Amino acid sequence: MELQGPGFILRGWLPEDAVSLQKHADNTNITDFLMDRFPSPYTMDEAVNWIKMMQHQDPMVIFSIAVDGNVVGGIGLELRGDVYSKAPLIGYWLGQEYWGRGIMPEAVKLVTNYAFTHLDVVRLQAGIFGNNPKSMRVLEKAGYTKEGVMKSSIFKNGVILDEHIYAIIR
After folding, report:
1. Are 11 and 2 in contact (CB under 8 A)?
2. Residue 161 contacts by C-beta under 8 Å, 6 or more apart in sequence?
């Protein structure tokens, strides 16, 4: 499965992506805005293990972002169960040297369209740390709407932050 964007491709994860993945993911300017489950430092072992875990997705919901054949980020859906089964979470990151090129809003649009046309979902939702206005702007450019702010709901790097909830409905 590949989704073509302007100047990038969303695709599955390949064993040969480990070096590029590790290079771009090992950056605190990225991990400072992600959940703690995203490793920091991001080692080669972490990259290899992630790629192995991604090899047999069904359905495919977590894509690599490749530019000129090199993985420079990731975007995906976290499918949820129970009463949230129709409303997965969307999350993403991009290597710092690729910021400001318009890649991420387009990638979010592609994954959103993919989710609404290939998966049985009616809503996509994202929670953005209050200190990450660039990510909020990504979602706004992709057609998402801010639905609210959960005050003091995140503890990251010793700081209490608000979480901004964005969503789009099919």
Report:
1. yes
2. 129, 130, 131, 152, 153, 154, 155
Report the predicted TM-score, pTM, of the whole model to 2 decimal places: 0.96
Determine contact, residues 41/60, Cβ cutoff 8 Å: no
60, two tokens: 């495919």
pLDDT tens for 106-124 read 999 999 999 999 999 999 9
Structural tokens at position 147: 């639905």
DSSP annotation of 68 reads T
Looking at the DSSP assignment, which residues form a beta bridge with residue 149? 164
Q: pLDDT tens for residues 42-95?
A: 999 999 999 999 999 999 999 999 999 999 999 999 999 999 999 999 999 999
Please state, in angstroms and rounded to a whole number, the distance separating the CA atoms of residues 97 and 12: 22
CA 21/CA 45 separation, integer angstroms: 11
- Of 4, 136, 134, 137, nearest to 63 by C-alpha is 4
CB 86 within 8 A of CB 121: yes
Rounded distance, CA 170 to CA 160, Å? 33
